[in-house]
């Protein structure tokens, strides 16, 4: 299973996938890592692992649509079976998603707390349990069919950073487990239901 991972930041989720892919039995291989900005640790992690990288900056294109098309072209050139958004802070279009099966990891229990700061929203609401979700990207904001989830407790003395760090420990393991299962058995999306396995004949 060939994967392209898109990142915008530290890339610790990417690193967990890189480490998992070092074992041939894992069944997945990262063909390339892409980003929407330069100079991020996520790209450096890919470089260190000898993985091809590319960057598509929105500002280098005349419109968001042109950027999205160029990004999809760059990703598609690596002929991935699966695209993993791992801390990628941009929305991709329906056209992108029609071409490329894409999953995203979000640091909250969807459908709760969508958007850019799941941990802060969970803390502000006062929930006692939050977590992380891997879902098939569907064009909404963190709305797609759910592949995997993991629950994480909120502690009384948490701030956004401590909570997000606890979530990310569980999130990385969830991502590695779920991508490994997808690599071995495939991914079937039937409406909102996601199954690991092959399509019914
Ligand atoms: C993750 O929690 C991801 O879900 C969120 O941003 C974080 C990215 O972390 N959108 P990293 O870049 O993988 O370290």
Bound compounds: 5-O-phosphono-beta-D-ribofuranosylamine
| The CATH C-level class name of the largest domain | Alpha Beta
Mean pLDDT rating? 97
Element string (H = helix, E = strand): EHEHEHEHEHEEHEE
What structural class do the secondary elements suggest?
A: alpha/beta
Summed up, the domain count is 2
InterPro entries: Formyl_transf_N, Formyl_transf_N_sf, GART
Organism: Nocardioides piscis
Binding site for (6R)-10-formyltetrahydrofolate: 64, 89-92, 104
Active site: 106 (proton donor)
Folded structure, characterized:
With 201 residues, this protein is α/β, with parallel strands linked by helices. It has 2 domains: 1-100, 3-Layer(aba) Sandwich (Rossmann fold); 105-201, 3-Layer(aba) Sandwich (Rossmann fold), CATH 3.40.50. The chain is 35% helix and 25% strand. It has 6 helices and 9 strands; from the N terminus they run βαβαβαβαβαββαββ. The chain has helices at residues 12-21, 41-48, 64-76, 94-99, 118-125, 160-185, and strands spanning 2-7, 29-35, 52-55, 82-85, 102-106, 129-136, 146-153, 187-190, 193-196. α1 runs parallel beside α6 (160-185) and α5 (118-125) crosses α6 (160-185). The chain starts with a strand and ends in a 5-residue tail after the last strand. The mean pLDDT is 97. Bound molecules: 5-O-phosphono-beta-D-ribofuranosylamine. 5-O-phosphono-beta-D-ribofuranosylamine is lined by residues 7, 9-14, 42, 86-87, 105-107, 168, 171.
């Amino acid at each position: 299973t060939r994967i392209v991972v898109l990142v915008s930041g530290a890339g610790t989720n990417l690193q967990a996938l890189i480490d998992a892919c070092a074992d041939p039995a894992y069944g997945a291989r990262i063909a390339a890592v892409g980003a929407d900005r330069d100079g991020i640790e996520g790209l450096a992690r890919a470089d260190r692992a000898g993985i091809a990288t590319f960057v598509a900056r929105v500002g280098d294109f005349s419109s968001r649509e042109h950027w999205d098309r160029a990004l999809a072209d760059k990703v598609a050139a690596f002929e991935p079976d699966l695209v993993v958004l791992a801390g990628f802070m941009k929305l991709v279009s329906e056209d992108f998603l029609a071409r490329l099966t894409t999953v995203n990891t979000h640091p909250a229990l969807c459908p709760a707390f969508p958007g850019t700061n799941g941990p802060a929203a969970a803390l502000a609401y006062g929930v006692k349990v939050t977590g992380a979700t891997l879902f098939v990207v569907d064009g909404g904001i963190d709305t797609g069919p759910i592949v995997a989830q993991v629950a994480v407790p909120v502690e009384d003395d948490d701030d956004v950073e401590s909570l997000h760090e606890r979530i990310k420990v569980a999130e990385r393991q969830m991502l590695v487990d779920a991508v490994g299962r997808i690599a071995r058995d495939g991914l079937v999306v039937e409406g909102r239901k996601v199954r690991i396995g092959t399509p019914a004949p």
